Amino acid sequence: MIFKLKYDTPKEWAIEAIKDIDSFLQDHADAERKVANMCLSLIAKYPNKHEIIDELIQISVEELMHFRQVHELIRYRGDVLNGVFQKDPYIKGLLSIVRSDSELLFMDRLIIASVAELRGSERFKLIGEVIDDTKISKFYLNLHKQELEHIDSFIKMAKIYFDGEVVNKRVDEILEQEAKVTESLPWRSAIH
């Protein structure tokens, strides 16, 4: 892995989050659809970035498969998919430092995708470790490992178009902001 979070989610967060696992699953379903949409949005907004289109398509497909798996867990729990996307204060906090220049915005979006995937992976592992339901536990422990692959993918994409040191410096700046945002947010039964 290329980088490490600057704030570790306490295990107690997961213990609280699983008390409302149904809300967590709904939020997770939303997050998977949003990442798939973000990949497609990057293709639409930056069609000249030919080198990464195939990988963005692949990640979008994988995220939709994860959405499908989460949807199956929602149904397994006897619930139905909530069609309303909830506002995500975590992403809003990260977007507050995004730059407006088109190329720098492109870099920031890739880095934020990596950082958000890493935070999600960390929290999936915690959920998998504390939940009693074996089916849900196995799913989240497995997903934790799968998500780690996308983190490197987004950073590698950024380094195709920008100097590696510039990307690394920006990763560090975004990680600092991410730590502040994550630590300041109230605990919710949500990925972020």
Summarize the structure.
The protein has 192 residues and is mainly α.
Can you give a write-up of this model?
This protein is mainly α. It has one domain: Ferritin, core subunit, four-helix bundle (Ferritin, Up-down Bundle). The protein is built from 7 helices and no strands. α3 (50-76) runs antiparallel to α6. The radius of gyration is 16 Å and the shape is globular.
Topology of this protein?
Elements: H1 11-17, H2 21-45, H3 50-76, H4 89-95, H5 102-130, H6 134-161, H7 164-184
Given as residue ranges, the uncertain stretches (5+ residues, pLDDT < 50) are: none
Oligomer: single chain
Any idea of the CATH topology?
Ferritin
Strand content: under 5%
Number of domains: 1
Helical residue percent band: over 70%
Q: Would you count the extended β strands for me?
A: 0
Mean pLDDT: 93
Question: Structural class, from secondary structure content?
Answer: mainly alpha
Please write the string of helix (H) and strand (E) elements. HHHHHHH
Find the CATH superfamily: Ferritin, core subunit, four-helix bundle
CATH architecture: Up-down Bundle
Please give the count of helices. Answer: 7
Tell me the major beta sheet.
none
Distance between the termini: 20 Å
Shape: globular
